[in-house]
Amino acid sequence: MWKGRFQKETTDRVQQYGESISYDWRLYAHDIRGSLSHAEALVEAGILTRAEFNAIRKGLREIEKEIAAGTFDFKVTLEDIHMNIEAALTQRIGPAGAKLHTARSRNDQVALDIRMYCRDEIDAIIAHLETLQKALVECGLKNRNAVIPGYTHLQRGQPVLFAHHLLAYVEMFERDCGRLADARRRVNVMPLGSGALAGSTIALDRLGIAKRLGFPAITQNSMDAVSDRDFVAEILFALALAGTHLSRLSEDVVLWATAEFRFVTLSDAHTTGSSLMPQKKNPDVAELTRGKSGRLYGNLVSLLTTLKGLPMTYNRDLQEDKEPLFDSIDTMKAALAVFAEMMEAMTVNAGETAAATDDPYLLATDIADYLVKRKVPFRQAHEIVGKLTAHCVENNRQYPELSLDEFRAFSETFDASVFKVFDVRTALRARTAVGAPSPSNVAKQLGRWQRKLAAKKA
User: 22, 30, 274, 417: which is the annotated catalytic residue?
Assistant: First the structure.
């Protein structure tokens, strides 16, 4: 492709070192679509005849079918997907194929391809996120009466509905959907026509190309257009943060499935055994997902490090944007798909969760609230319940086991009504503030998410 300037071929080692066809071949459909739109513009500009365009279109469609079928012969010597397709096209249809690259560079060509690829993959990942949200909502609906301890510092704090805990992750994943959708707006800007860095003296109808390719806007600076990879970094960040949320959910699932918690049982289809210990049932899906978050972080840092010292405009370093992007997209799609499957098949052990919430200490804050409602300042109420708890711990007793006189020894504000506090269901029903886990609130949220996710699928 640059034989006019060079007297020697690049060495085999350089060719192997510089090739990207081993991974950027996946851009073939986007590359062909972009080339067809570019060819239309060349016809409009009088560079191509309609007959030449028809030959180009026929040749590109044949190449596309061969790549999809796995029969196309990729050549490392041609470096990338762009030159592999162009060389094959020219070999098949002759001079018309050699005209196709008029008024464009591989710099704006790859910028176009990667943006179209990212648009499609963002849409696919959002769909996967919504499938996982639906699985979490369905699990909440199936187990709407299950109560578990809510934790801070991994210490039991207050009782919550299991569905409320799951809905916390539904909210997280909704923010992930929002971040990806927002990033898509910045992806959805058409760079073709920027050339290598300064456009071309052959002015094509960029707005027409953009319209054919579904872009609502075109780039306004040719130098920025060919060197911008902000949108890739933004996607990698959104995926890394989604990975964080998946990792946190994975940790919860791992804990819930232990013999110590026994809150859930994972399906045999989503667990593995031990090569040595025959009794084991390991939550490998959750553990692998927790581990893969590190890959997502690494891919983001890799790209940012690549970008940080680049001068304007295009530099070959930018070839390093694709492998991190492809890996993060593949990793996230696989993790979301298998996790949704696992959550759909998971069983909640209501007896175990009920036993875990049969812990009066979970209602310590409710006792403090009881005092506050009787005009005791909160800090004083907090101290009273703290001393009451210390007394119970020292004497190996629980709140309900104390007599009224023992309660009144800590505060004369207590009366017989304090014993009504020691009911988990009563405590949950009292949590009626917006966002709190009362059964009525959680039922409304489950219904809201059911409707919202159903509307997205429609």
Answer: 274
Q: What is 12-102's CATH number, 1.10.275.10, 1.25.40.10, 1.20.1290.10, 3.40.50.720?
A: 1.10.275.10
Average pLDDT per consecutive 10 residues, the chain (458 residues; last block may be shorter): 73 94 98 98 98 98 98 97 98 97 98 98 98 98 97 97 98 98 98 97 97 98 98 98 98 98 97 94 97 98 98 97 98 98 97 95 97 97 98 96 97 96 95 97 98 89
Active-site annotation holder among 35, 38, 105, 153: 153
Q: Is 274 a catalytic residue?
A: yes
- Note if 222 is an active site residue: no
Kindly report the pTM of this predicted structure.
0.95
Angle at 395 between CA 391 and CA 398, to 5 degrees: 75
Q: At what angle do helices 364-372 and 378-394 cross, to 10 degrees?
A: 140
DSSP run (H or E) holding 146: none
Q: What are phi and psi of 229, to 5 degrees?
A: -130, 20
